[in-house]
Specification:
α4 packs antiparallel against α5 (about 140-155). The chain is of the alpha/beta class. Helix content is about 30%, strand content about 30%. β4 (about 55-60) and β5 form a beta hairpin. Belongs to the ABC transporter superfamily. Part of the ABC transporter complex HmuTUV involved in hemin import. Responsible for energy coupling to the transport system. Pfam families: ABC_tran.
């Protein structure tokens, strides 16, 4: 069971102070969604948690160990990271692309051991691409390719999964499919963190919400505690309708508020 923590984390990108003094602890078995307006520092935070951005102050710890000091292969086995807008450049089959997720384990994608083959098959089935194994990934739709890349991350079997806007290119049905996959992955014991812009779906699926605004952590709690009318007005500049209905906690953006 892995715990991922940021301690007084600050990151500067050129002249931009992207993150300032972030204190955050994320635990297994929970699906955490990071939200915030454009430029809030969401992707920078996710990359810092993955050990891909060096802090200018503070630290990121995985079970008490500095992530930045882990060997790259060890870190890749522990933390699976899926960037926003990932691409498939070569006409590899779906199964071959997903098999790349086994590289951190020292497994050759074209000669997987039984455990690797099982991981790949399970990941492909989880994202709803069973039967696509032999199709070139470059011939798939953008949404299908996005699910292939998610399957590659799942195939790593890392205890931590970090994904940046996993539903950005998907139709409504497959948005739900992917979010159900991420939720189930967390319920199975993984630590799962995703960046999302859809507040309605974030409220429905997240166990906890991290709200960032201008590089600062504004809140980290259950969706109903974070996505309040006051916070949505302050951070997003929107008026929102919030309700507790039979299907759960519901957030619907109504209209933009006048800029100050």
């Amino acid at each position: 069971m892995s715990t991922l923590s940021a301690r007084s984390l600050s990151v500067r990108l050129g002249r931009n102070q992207a993150l300032s003094g972030i204190d955050l602890t994320l635990t297994p078995g929970r699906f955490t969604v990071i939200v915030g307006p454009n430029g809030a520092g969401k992707s920078t935070l996710l990359r810092a948690l993955a050990g891909l951005v060096e802090p200018t102050a503070g630290s990121v710890l995985l079970d008490g160990r500095p992530v930045g000091r882990m060997r790259s292969a060890e870190r890749a086995r522990a933390i699976a990271y899926l960037s926003q807008g990932g691409q498939v450049a070569w006409p590899l089959t779906v199964a071959s692309v997903v098999a790349l997720g086994r590289l951190p384990h020292g497994e050759a994608p074209d000669a997987l051991p039984p455990s690797g083959s099982e991981a790949v098959g399970t990941a492909i089935a989880a994202v709803g691409l069973g039967g696509y194994e032999d199709r070139p990934a470059t011939e798939l739709s953008g949404g299908e390719r996005a699910r292939v890349l998610l399957a590659r991350a799942l195939a790593t079997k890392a205890p931590v999964l970090l994904v940046d806007e996993p539903i950005a290119a998907l139709d409504p049905r497959h948005e739900l499919v992917v979010l159900e996959v991420l939720k189930a992955h967390a319920q199975a014991g993984a630590l799962v963190v995703a960046i999302m812009h859809n507040l309605t779906l974030a409220a429905r699926f997240a166990d906890e919400i991290v709200l960032l605004d201008r590089g600062h952590l504004q809140a980290h709690a259950r969706p109903s505690e974070v996505l309040t009318e006051a916070r949505l007005a302050q951070s997003f500049g929107i008026a929102a309708h919030i309700a507790h209905e039979a299907g759960g906690f519901v957030v619907v953006a109504d209209r933009p508020l006048p800029q100050a």
